[in-house]
């Protein structure tokens, strides 16, 4: 009995090692004292109790019978050992699955030290073992044994996921290696994805010619500061390379690119730690300075940077003179960041939000060399479109959510190049202002709307309101006032909604209060606030402007479930209820949930792609002829 029981247990261990593919030599080397003691105790109990059981059973003294019962007892003992071992391994497998599930639940892993998240999740699912990060895979600590994952590389560092156990704890199993293998692969893939995303983000936010940030990154940084540093003084310094077009025409774009690159490098040399430099258009840079303690320090820094930037640039064509202008905008307690964002709109030259392939610098040079002809100057396209009056207007219906009928129209300006590519509306408005052509653009839109509305009203006489967006330059132009007054007499059946954005409100507040009052006094003219509900428009305009309507920004309507957004919209509706002549439009309505929300808070007017996209005049006229101003009852389509 003393010999047979340990042999039976040894055979069970060998069979287990064989089926779970654990090398016997490794298993013997990485022994577990707790396991050995437990098995020795089990053997001792079997040696003592099996004879006692045989004697208690009183099976007699027949040798064959005793031997048979003895063998049955050994088989039962071996089955018991195998059962205990199987249950233990099932428990270990469950722990392994729990570890892997914990890591999966943490996806996507954070960009910073994702390995700590993986290790923490593994340890949450393990008992009597420790997972950690190791810089080597040959640890040799007395009384401990280890398992390692495949090497994980971050480019600058290589490490391993490691498991540690001491000789008193349970031995390693294949499930432990599965945990390390699977979680190691997850961590490796996460590092690869994070690296590629970071690289793509860096490339997309970095100007390839000058190494400065792009306009998109500039606006994103400015908006983030708006919420993160509302109490800090922030300055934006603009540096414009003057007469760059002349340099390009005289020396060629290659030299013009060299000048831009040189100016960008010089500005970066003096860039302080609390500042970022962006290339906001073809020939202009913008520096954002945060945590400003003294305006004079910023002005002095801008002077030093400009003095360095205007030094001649030495090129292969010889010395090229550089002229750089500068201007500074500061945020303040009264206007906050609206001043900075308004100035950013005025300084934009080529908007990255445009879906035009607008290029400059090296990109355009390569395109020209390849003969692709896919590049053009967006500013010239817009200038010619305004001068030749080749702009077009799209009409976005505004509907009543209760009566389900179209009540008025919003306008979207469209400008196309020779190949039919479209400039973004935001770029059209901002660039027209920079070119001092806003008045002419708005008059062109106004004339187009009058002609189209006349055709619309022959089919739908109840349709009499059209909204037009302005950027502020029109307010001080006598020709605009005269033409609008003339139209109100010529077209008494039409009403014109003039929408003021943040920049227009800034102009109104500082320069043309009397002109705005004169506009508001015209019959059939209504003034409205666009982008309401956001800090990018001055909601304080409600106090000092004779506004007739407000249009909520799409981002506010999109976040209608957010308590803050809901509160803003409810308060604005309260203002409209106190003034019967004031109405509110909810822009960006794209779902039935938004419609139900608007109804629930007492709103009526909505605009968006839920039941109708923006249409050309011919498309909208055809719609009126077939459907009138009624909205379809069919299920809403997805926004395009």
Description:
The structure is a single chain. The protein is of the alpha/beta class. A hairpin with a 4-residue loop joins β3 (152-153) and β4 (158-166). The termini are far apart. The model is unreliable at 349-376 and 634-640 (pLDDT under 50).
Beta-strand content estimate: 15-25%
Number of helical stretches of at least 4 residues: 23
Unreliably modeled segments? 349-376, 634-640
Task: Please report the distance between the alpha carbons of the first and last residues.
Answer: 83 Å
Chain-wise SSE layout:
Blueprint: H1 4-19, H2 24-29, H3 33-57, H4 63-105, H5 114-125, E1 130-134, E2 144-148, E3 152-153, E4 158-166, H6 174-204, H7 215-228, E5 235-241, H8 244-251, H9 253-269, E6 275-281, E7 284-289, H10 295-309, E8 313-315, E9 318-320, E10 324-330, H11 338-347, H12 362-370, H13 378-387, E11 392-400, E12 405-414, H14 425-434, H15 438-459, E13 465-470, H16 478-490, E14 495-500, H17 502-510, H18 513-521, E15 525-532, H19 541-544, E16 549-552, H20 554-558, H21 563-578, E17 583-587, H22 592-600, E18 605-607, H23 617-627
Parallel strand pairs: 12-13, 13-14, 14-15, 15-16, 16-17, 17-18
Antiparallel strand pairs: 1-4, 2-4, 3-4, 5-7, 5-10, 6-7, 8-9, 11-12, 11-18
